[in-house]
Task: structure prediction
Amino acid sequence: MTKEQVISKFGKPYKSEFKGDKETTELQESLFYKENFNMGNSSITNILIFKGGKLVALKQGKESESNPPTIVTQHP
Result:
């Protein structure tokens, strides 16, 4: 698939990233899509990797919450 086909099918990503390969000088672009699940506020990030405008890989990973929730209690 091309980048345009992916965006047409899945919508705009929430983040994108560009990297250059030092050996081949080829530009690699990554598009990030997040899937949320209702069980425990979990989410998985899908990272679609493109080289030469074509989809070459898909990686998945869980992004952890960096700040735990704060619990406020009142004491008499």
Remarks:
- The radius of gyration is 18 Å.
- The CA atoms of residues 14 and 69 lie 23 Å apart.
- DSSP finds one helix and four strands in the chain.
